[in-house]
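Thiolase N-terminal domain-containing protein
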Amino acid sequence: METLSSIPFLVRDIRYGVPSGTTPQFEDKLRMSFLDSYCNMYLIETVDVVAKMYGVTREEADNYALRSQKRWKDGK
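Structure:
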């Protein structure tokens, strides 16, 4: 079941309203959750950097993931 689209937007410091003539700034809580605060990069960017650093190709990563899924299924 897909649930990511139901994650709310966040508006900070709005408890007592916003000054007249200003627009509240909405933050996408889902997008924020994918940001690695250690290196200030999104996780997909971090994965790309690490894959290049260790020479892991997309095909190798996909094969590893498939093998992992098969092992899980066999152990079920």
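The chain has a mean pLDDT of 84.
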